[in-house]
Amino acid sequence: MGAALVHGVLRAGRSPSDVTIVEASETRRRELVETFRGVNVTDAVTACRDVIIAVKPADVAEVCALAVACGATRILSIAAGVRIARLQQASGAGVRVIRAMPNTPAVVGMAATAIAVSSDCTDDDRAWACELMAGVGMVVELDESMLDAFTGLMGSGPAYVFYLAESLQAAAVAEGFDSESSAHLVAQLIAGSAALLQREPQHARQLRERVTSPNGTTAAGIAVLEARHMHDALLAAVRSAAARSKELGDA
Fold first, then answer.
1. By the 8 A CB rule, do 138 and 111 touch?
2. 93-120 pLDDT, tens digit each
3. Which range of residues forms the domain containing residue 42?
């Protein structure tokens, strides 16, 4: 995800020379040098103002301390489950904190990202964070209390879509299509349907109804999904993922 953010920063027009990537692994540093031409790649940084933290939650406190020692005054963290209070505790006074939660479509510039900010953040901090995260997709600002729900819906959401794709591919194979054709057909099905929904995001139900003629083939299929309570299953999945996100954040 950190590499996806660097791509986004560069797409947003930042000069490569203004970006420094800190990476402990020598092997990974060599890969990053090849990927991001002109970007500074190092195992340590001596001076910085703005820091993006893209590490495992267990490493956040150490990285925050290093950032502060290097002069950071603004930190944006994408570490999963690490709340603003914990980031502030690790950073100390004088450092404004932003928590961002992109999802995996960031790697293709199609993320949905939520940001939440500490109480001392300025409008400039918000604008900076939004501009940064817009490089990998759409951005919404939420109160931190909504981030667990966002995780349940949008953080886990790509897996729900892939689970649906997996099931549709299996159905296609069961109906006689070969596996390669099934994969491409289902990918196109989801991409095309998503494009229609992007054009009319408020009208998912109407889009469904346009395809569903009374007593037709689609109506027969929808009836099975309703009989098996697909709506309730999806609602329960989102709530369960959100509850687990809260548990991890409270730990």
1. yes
2. 889 999 999 999 999 999 999 999 999 9
3. 2-147
Asked if residue 14 lies in contact with residue 47, where contact means CB atoms within 8 angstroms, the answer is no
- Residue spans of alpha helices (H) in 70-178: 84-91, 123-134, 147-150, 157-174
Structural domains in the chain (count): 2
Nearest to 9 by CA among 118, 134, 165, 97: 134
- Give the tens place of pLDDT for each residue, 149-193: 999 999 999 999 999 999 999 999 999 999 999 999 999 999 999
- Which residue matches tokens 């759409």? 138
Kindly report the pTM of this predicted structure: 0.89
Residues 6+ apart with CB under 8 A from 113: 100, 101, 102, 103, 106, 133, 136, 137, 138, 139, 140
Q: How many helices (H) and strands (E) does the chain have?
A: 11, 7
18 with 136, same domain: the answer is: yes
Which residues lie across from 101 on neighbouring strands?
Answer: 114
